[in-house]
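Per reviewer request, we include the raw input and output of the structure prediction for the construct analysed in the revised manuscript.
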Amino acid sequence: MSLPDRPRKPRDWKRSKSRQSLTKIVLLAALMFGLRGLISLGQKAAVYKGKKEKLPLSVARQPIDFSHKKHSAVGLSCPQCHTGAMESEQAGFPSTDECMICHDTVMSDSLEVRKLAEAHKRKEKVRWVRVYRLPEFVFFSHANHLRAGQQCVSCHGPVDQRDVLAQEISTSMTTCMNCHSAKRVSNDCSLCHQLGH
């Protein structure tokens, strides 16, 4: 026994056409993005071009001569002095308290350590000259990059081999985007910039 055919509702022709058009657009977009994804699997990462920079870029003399090379030679690593790098956006600098743990006795008669000891005695921060600086509108987290397996040398160069630091690696948007592209990390604008505010 078969059921009688249901009476059909009259179709709204315009509504039906617009649904068909929307369906076609969605399918076409999905097909295009799908093909782009398949094609990109076999392609190299995008390379971005920016303006030429003259590196290394020297900075003003530091208030206390400090050799990363000498400190690295005795076994100190970047995170031991720049503890903020592991947990926040900025790497930060060690306090004079931390420096004086060693320098209360180690090389305490040198002119540079005496400058450090004076700052420590006056409870003053050493006003280090920044070597790497990003614009205010850029968000960068040292902690996120370290958690992702990035090494300090990738962005700062071979600091552990330098007596005097200069900016050796570009901090341009092009450099960052090329690194993200090579590592297949998002280059979405809002990842590093707050948009619409």
